[in-house]
Design a protein that fits this description.
The structure holds two protein chains of two kinds. By secondary structure, chain A is α/β, with parallel strands linked by helices. Chain A contains 18 helices and twelve strands. Chain B is built from 19 helices and twelve strands. Classes of the chains: A alpha/beta, B alpha/beta.
Chain lengths: ~450, ~425
């Protein structure tokens, strides 16, 4: 069997990114591009971010780094050393795309900004991923993930009203900037393929996230009303039975029974009755109230919260019985049996639930990637999308620091005597704080 | 920089957009603002919920003025087609014959009922790029499970991992994966497929199961379990390798709202990933005695005493506006950022300078704001030229110019309630 083709198998990417932007080059690498990760002698700082394999830190053990660097090759090269720069300049003509996440202007200072790269490769695509973009009052602000989700408006919306705004999990700012950067890079590549013209792609983590504010932006634009975070209730001003999170016997589920698209509340009542757990809900005044728990009711409550005041004790009792029902069953049973009844109910999946999810298993979603140095395979997240002719795939585990320096050295030597700028550093050098080094690099 | 003779990357590409809600329409809008001709297919019998939800401009209420819907559908031509009729399905396939890209996030059941599977499409357009965004996938035991963005957050793991450990798993407060993760992953896949087709002439089928695309966005927590067996939960705003790291309460302000004057909480995010950040923060706070305490000198110490650390920092932030705190701390080399709400974003001077938001004139909604592109191309920047279509606004234009029908035929289709 021959391997299917890749959409990017003729494309070389020089990857200068750190946390921010690394997901962009992962997406390109997983679609078949030859992504060469250029690391400083002490390694990408992402190598020091937890979680670590078996909880022991080390530059070749970060699971965070692993996931962001599948299919890439690693070359150690110090861009601040003239020899390293010369070696990089030898690589640029062989590349279609450079992706970087330094502070704006840093590469210009080395003569390697868009103009400088264009002299080496006129149709180069340079993608720059930063917190706030290449220009503007905040362009030089320091921007870890939390700065992006804060300034991008999505953190404000997450959480209970009396809690601080909640941090989205797993670096959604970095991730969203990475996805937008990959889309922008692919757009620029399509244009280059047709016209021979390269360009500079400017991605701001803040801008990458702004559209995820949902109704909040148009609500202020149209009504001058700020949307606030509402915790578990969503847009509903009161607790409505069947809407929101419920504890199961071993975790949480989330119910939207009453919202359009699923079976009505009466089906949930039938389920409770079938299990002998409806208590007195089949009698009045509960049954007639349950029959009315639909979109019309939800809309009335949203438009006029007082409309439900009279019914509050009845609603509270229905909810109490429902709480007991869900609490009596394991979460997977609630999810699968509820869905079997066409009820809008989801499991609140923990990572363990995802690892055991029968749908992901049936579709062979997880990927076991061999790591000979760790004496085994590690289980990675699988494809975000499946392309029938040019499939997403992992063919190479993430690189050891400088693993491919000699390989690239050979390629470059063939072109001239500049290879000595490539250092064959296999281990991180020195004890200097990597964040300090990163700061120096960014300034 | 120079522009490319007015040509946009996707000029000449035709898109049949059979999607609704967020994940599909946002992807198709990105194709449209980079030059593609996008026909959004809707129906009065199967109306996009975002047209009904709002928010609406004051005093206006119709399916054409929802800010939620309009924000995701700029630059598109809008037609209404009843796909529950045979003639409607015929016209859908005529549109597919015209299209380079087909996109939908309808359920597998509906796609099969409407005759819009990949196998159906290649019969009329062999090199079609057909992108499907089912919730769970077109196969597997949960294929027909119900769901939309609001259930997707819990199912994909976002809710279990967001928020404070003592709270219910409230999630992100929005249908988060609908807006960037799923639409923009789809965009990457479509652009890869367009490139492959340009090189080989071959189309293909793309399937983005929203479950899979969203779970892929939680890799660190997922691998901590699949590799280490450690079950991560909700850990509030903290990170294991930073302290302080969180949102700190600032001085409350009074704001005018449609409901009168109200207090508004204000917050500033602050993050120290290194001892250098910490020492700069200490200096910026005025080098208070508490901060010189040995217990806070190292990351391990700051993690151990994080409750007290956060309380001390809040004493400082609560006397300031978040803007003042951010500017002061950033000037001192400490990562800090205002936790902005939608008003802050719309009034953000930096975003204004960058021209992020776009204003478009709509025949019913008036002049309203749209999110700009999530990335910028120096020579072929996105062009937002037309507000979102009213329901069926371009029926006649699309039927005659794209589907090649005569005005008489169009009239018949209206009478027969196919174009509705």
């Amino acid at each position: 069997m021959t391997e299917p083709p890749s959409a990017l198998d003729d494309i070389r990417v020089l990857d200068l990114t750190r946390d921010l932007g690394a997901y962009c080059t992962k997406l390109l690498a997983d679609l078949g591009a030859d992504v060469i990760k250029i690391e400083p002698p002490e390694g990408d700082p992402a190598r020091r971010v937890p979680p670590f394999y078996q909880d022991q830190s080390g530059p070749e053990r970060s699971l965070y780094f692993f996931n962001l660097n599948t299919n890439k090759r690693s070359v150690v090269l110090d861009l601040e050393d003239p020899r390293g720069r010369a070696a990089f300049e030898k690589l640029v003509p062989t590349a279609d795309i450079v992706v970087e996440s330094f502070a704006p202007g840093y590469l210009d200072g080395l003569g390697l900004g868009y103009q400088g790269l264009g002299k080496l490769r006129p149709d180069i695509i340079l993608t720059s991923v930063t917190g706030f973009g290449q220009f503007g009052a905040h362009a030089h602000y320091l921007a870890p993930d939390i700065a992006g989700v804060a300034m991008g408006g999505i953190m404000w919306l997450a959480g209970a009203p009396d809690d601080p705004p909640n941090l989205p999990p797993c670096y959604q700012g970095y991730l969203s900037a990475g996805i937008q950067a990959a889309a922008g890079t692919m757009m620029a590549l399509y244009h280059r393929d047709l016209t021979g013209e390269g360009q500079h792609v400017d991605v701001s983590m803040q801008e990458a996230l702004l559209i995820a504010q949902e109704t909040a932006m148009p609500q202020y634009d149209l009504q001058k009303a700020v949307r606030h975070r509402t915790g578990v209730r969503g847009a509903l001003p009161i607790n409505v039975p069947g809407m929101g999170p419920y504890e199961a016997s071993d975790g949480w589920v989330w119910s939207y029974v009453g919202a359009p698209g699923g079976a009505p509340w009466t089906e949930l009542l039938a389920w409770m009755q079938a299990e002998g757990k409806a208590e007195d809900l089949a009698g009045e005044p509960y049954a007639s109230t349950i029959a009315e728990l639909n979109m019309r009711f939800l809309t009335q409550v949203v438009l006029n919260p007082d409309s439900a005041k009279e019914k509050a004790p009845v609603l509270a009792h229905i909810d109490d019985v429902l709480v007991r029902f869900f609490k009596s069953k394991p979460k997977w049973e609630v999810y699968e049996q509820g869905q079997g009844r066409r009820l809008l109910i989801g499991i609140v999946s923990t990572p363990e639930d995802l690892a055991k999810n029968p749908q992901l298993a049936a579709r062979r979603w997880f990927q076991d990637v061999p790591h000979p140095e760790l004496n085994g395979s590690l289980r990675y997240p699988g494809p975000p999308y499946r392309l029938s002719e040019t499939p997403w795939r992992i063919t190479r585990r993430p690189p050891l620091l400088g693993e491919h320096t000699a390989e690239l050295l050979g390629e470059i030597r063939a072109q001239g005597p500049v290879g000595e700028g490539l250092q064959t550093v296999a281990q991180p050098s020195g004890s200097e704080d990597p964040d300090l080094q990163e700061r120096r690099r960014r300034q | 920089m120079t522009t490319s003779n007015g040509r946009l990357p996707l000029s000449g590409i035709n898109v049949a957009d059979f999607s609704w809600f967020g994940a599909g329409p946002i992807c198709a809008e990105a194709l449209a603002v980079y030059g593609a001709t996008v026909v959004r297919v809707e129906s009065e019998t199967h109306i996009d919920g975002l047209r009904s939800i709002g928010p609406f401009p004051p005093g206006k209420f119709s399916h054409n003025v929802s800010g939620y819907f309009n924000n995701y559908n700029a630059n598109k031509l809008g037609i209404t087609l009843d796909l529950n009729t045979e003639k409607g399905r015929d016209l859908a396939l005529r549109l597919v014959r015209w299209a380079d890209v087909f996109l939908t996030n309808m359920t597998p059941r509906i796609i099969e009922r409407w005759g819009l599977t990949y196998e159906d499409l290649v019969k009329v357009r062999p090199d079609i790029i057909a992108a499907y965004q089912p919730m769970q996938g077109f196969d597997g035991p949960h294929r027909d499970f119900l769901g939309f963005g609001a259930v997707l957050g819990p199912i994909t793991g976002f809710n279990a991992l967001t928020g404070f450990p003592n709270r219910a798993p409230n999630g992100m407060g929005t249908n988060y994966p609908d807006y960037v993760i799923n639409p923009m992953h789809t965009l990457v896949a479509i652009l890869a497929a367009l490139r492959h087709r340009r090189r080989t002439g071959q189309g293909q089928r793309i399937e983005l199961a929203q479950l899979e695309s969203s779970v892929a966005a939680l890799a660190p927590a997922l691998m901590d379990y699949t590799v280490n067996g450690r079950l991560q939960g909700r850990s509030g705003n903290r990170l294991p390798h930073a302290a302080p790291h969180g949102a700190f309460r600032c001085a409350t302000i009074k704001v005018q709202t449609p409901f009168g004057e109200r207090d508004e909480d204000r917050w500033c995010a602050i993050a120290c990933f290194s001892d250098d950040h910490w020492s700069r923060l200490r200096t910026a706070l005025g080098d208070p005695a508490w901060a010189r305490d040995e217990r806070f000198a190292t990351l391990a110490g700051r993690k151990q005493h994080e409750d007290e650390l956060e309380q001390r920092i809040t004493e400082w932030t609560s006397e300031r506006s978040p803007e003042e705190a951010m500017e002061l701390l950033q000037a001192a080399g400490v990562p800090a950022a205002v936790v902005q709400n939608a008003r802050d974003c719309l009034e953000d001077a930096h975003l204004r300078e960058r021209g992020y938001y776009v204003q478009l004139e709509h025949p019913e909604a008036g002049r309203t704001t749209y999110d700009g592109s999530g990335f910028r191309l120096s020579k072929t920047p996105a062009r937002f030229e037309r507000a979102a279509p009213c329901l069926g606004e371009h029926n006649f234009q699309v039927a005659t110019e794209i589907l090649g029908l005569s005005p008489d035929e169009v009239a018949d289709l209206i009478v027969e309630q196919v174009l509705r």
